[in-house]
Fold:
Amino acid sequence: MPKGSPSLLAVSILFFALADLWLAFPQLDLAVASQFGTPEVGFAARGAAWEQFMYGSIDELLVIIGLGLIGAWAVTGWCTSIDAAPHRPQAIGSLLCRLAPKRLMRRVTGRRLMFLLLLLALVPGLIVNQVFKEHWGRARPIQVEHFGGNRSFTPPFVISDQGGGSFSSGHVAAAAWLVAVPVVLFGLRSIWTRLALLYLLAMVLARLAAGAHFFSDALTSILLVWMGFLILQRLFPFEQPFEHPIKHQLEHRFASPFRLRAKPASNGLIQPSGKVSRQASADASTETRAGASSATSTGTSTATSPATSTAGIS
Structure:
């Protein structure tokens, strides 16, 4: 589990608490949708350039990122095989390995790739689009009578006969999966995760403004992807990425300065990077004076002993 993320139990409690809230107060969806549309005008943002961009961008991003992850994993395995057998002529492969972003390739392991593809297939693909959207039948905001349509409004989490595909949002579920990708590869606090979160919020706004989904539809998709992430992480745990790799390397490098990059000094002490601390210099001076005093006392006692022996004989 990424550091700082809530547990599966906490997200599950949040999901069921919000479901109870919407079942008790279904008019909340109409109140939020009324901020974007009216019975007279409908949803003015529907068909706008930015709304159409958000609507169409998700498919391209899924294809590009999905194929990119698979390609990065394949190239990583290829480069590993080339390193294991350098005697084989692999001119094109070696060039590709030199040009590929090594930091990204190291992060796209087989376990992480399997985790992300399973999450995409099971939650946005199967649960949201095939189970809920195809069989729940909730009418979209633009289709209900409150906004000039001819279908009845029904609460979320209640199977309807209106023949709509409002519950829940496939676009928002796919955008939530895009947030999971940088979380798995770069960590919860990376800049890529923040950019993906901004894209997710923009997608929610676009679907609400177009009258395609109620707010409960979008929120349900986000929570479903979140719970699927935590469940799959228990089944297929993967190593957590360093969220601040440069900081980690510096901490690891200077965690024990007298052990790392150490070289012997002329006085037998260990000095890192050619520098001796004041305490080390003071200790060395003390030991030198002590050694000199010991040598002096030893020499004096040696010189005195013959004289004493001669006096005894005489």
